[in-house]
Task: inverse folding
């Protein structure tokens, strides 16, 4: 019954879910109309706000591109391929693959949401080796595992609350930092981690669709991809001149590349020894870059690996600015703050986690960035919580703010299952060489969304923070 229901949702998404870019266009129009009707903002002001936000995610978009291509280049190395070959000796059935991908992906996402790239690589390689895998469903497994990032080391909202002189303190909304022991180290967050690492893999195995014919990766691959079997090493050798030359010696020098690898490794050690386990986007990209250079040994092999990694990133490059434009409308017209105030106005001492969770889930469709979203709605929610908790000890108010902030984060993360934005991280790797769209995947995520929505609402409402 569960499987049939999942297949029904998949059919509905295939019929009605537009391309991810069309989805972004529709969200832009809906957000603009909402600002015009609700706040009586002039059309010109809305368009100005859209433009002002249009380029706000350029740095983030470039970081995402580099995360994907450097991570993918590592996957193309002979060392990684040999490791995955050994893994398939033990993992040889589709259900084992689905379970493993969700569990490993959930663990990796605790380190950083950028590590979904590694999950993508693992899943794709397993799909090439294990017969009977429904590939669109496997992509859904990768995508759901990504949701655990909000409980991990790169969770932006808890890290913001614990940052000295953050904008909430500078504007007087908070008086001091809130330690991560209130948020990431809380029993609530530990329970959320268990939900993704244990419950999510088991539930996805229950949802495995029966239809496999025509859904395997080898069936979906275009003919040109199937015939492209030349290794990176062989391609590098084929580019050599028929006679000895200085240029070929430099292009294929492992010594030159080793110097850069040593320099990079030196900085990585320095970074972690002086800053602790500070794993931000930039250092993660740098680590991927240095590891990729080490595994590919020569400049020419690394160049070829990066060229192959860059072949499917167009979606990120042109769609991120449109989502930044939506964020601009929400931010610069005051629509996001107004929505946060409205939902917070309904909150009571018992219901505020629920409304914070709903706020996070709804606003995420327009601002698919936890940090960006919290900048818009966070102040309204925190002020509402402070009013509700007026007269309580500061420690209890901090606990309430932590619960509300975590609720926003969890709601934001879960609604990604209905929002194709972050599939842009997945498709450059898992969609390489095949014709696949968001509508082929999103239907498999409806039932996990509904189940996790009910569970998470109960968790944020009743599980104690200490």
Result:
């Amino acid at each position: 019954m569960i499987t049939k229901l999942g297949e029904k949702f998949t059919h509905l998404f295939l019929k009605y879910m537009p391309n991810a870019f069309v989805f972004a266009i529709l969200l832009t129009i809906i957000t603009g109309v909402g600002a015009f009707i609700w706040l009586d903002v002039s059309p010109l002001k809305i368009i100005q706000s859209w433009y002002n936000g249009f380029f706000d995610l350029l740095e983030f978009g470039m970081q995402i591109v580099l995360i994907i291509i450097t991570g993918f280049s590592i996957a193309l190395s002979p060392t990684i391929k040999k490791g995955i070959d050994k893994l398939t000796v033990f993992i040889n059935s589709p259900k084992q693959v689905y379970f493993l991908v969700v569990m490993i992906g959930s663990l990796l996402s605790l380190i950083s949401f950028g590590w979904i790239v590694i999950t993508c690589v693992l899943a794709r390689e397993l799909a090439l080796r294990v017969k009977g895998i429904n590939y669109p469903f496997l992509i859904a497994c990768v995508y759901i595992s990504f949701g655990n990032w909000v409980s991990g080391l790169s969770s932006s909202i808890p890290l913001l609350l614990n940052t000295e002189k953050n904008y909430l303190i500078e504007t007087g909304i908070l008086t001091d930092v809130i330690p991560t022991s209130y948020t990431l180290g809380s029993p609530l967050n530990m329970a959320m981690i268990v939900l993704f690492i244990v419950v999510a893999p088991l539930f996805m195995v229950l949802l495995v669709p029966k239809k496999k014919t025509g859904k395997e990766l080898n069936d979906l691959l275009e003919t040109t991809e199937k015939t492209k079997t030349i290794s990176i090493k062989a391609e590098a050798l084929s580019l050599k001149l028929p006679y000895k030359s200085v240029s070929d010696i430099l292009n294929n020098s492992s010594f030159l590349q080793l110097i850069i690898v040593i320099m990079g490794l030196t900085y990585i050690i320095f970074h972690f020894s002086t800053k602790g386990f500070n794993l931000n986007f930039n250092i993660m990209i740098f680590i991927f870059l240095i590891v990729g250079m080490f595994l590919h040994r020569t400049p020419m092999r690394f160049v070829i690996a990066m060229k192959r990694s860059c072949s499917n990133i167009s979606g990120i490059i042109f769609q991120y600015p449109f989502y930044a434009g939506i964020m601009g409308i929400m931010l610069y017209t005051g629509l996001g703050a107004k929505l946060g105030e409205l939902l917070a106005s309904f909150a009571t001492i018992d219901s505020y986690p629920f409304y914070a969770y709903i706020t996070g889930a709804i606003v995420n469709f327009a601002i698919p960035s936890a940090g960006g979203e919290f900048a818009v709605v966070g102040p309204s929610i925190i002020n509402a919580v402070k009013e509700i908790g007026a007269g309580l000890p500061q420690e209890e108010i901090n606990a309430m703010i932590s619960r509300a902030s975590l609720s926003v984060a969890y709601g934001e993360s879960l609604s990604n299952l209905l929002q194709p934005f972050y599939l842009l991280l997945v498709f450059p790797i898992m969609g390489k060489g095949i014709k696949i769209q968001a509508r082929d995947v999103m239907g498999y995520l409806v039932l996990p969304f509904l189940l996790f929505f009910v569970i998470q609402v109960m968790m944020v409402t009743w599980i104690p923070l200490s």
Summary: The two ends are 39 Å apart (CA to CA).
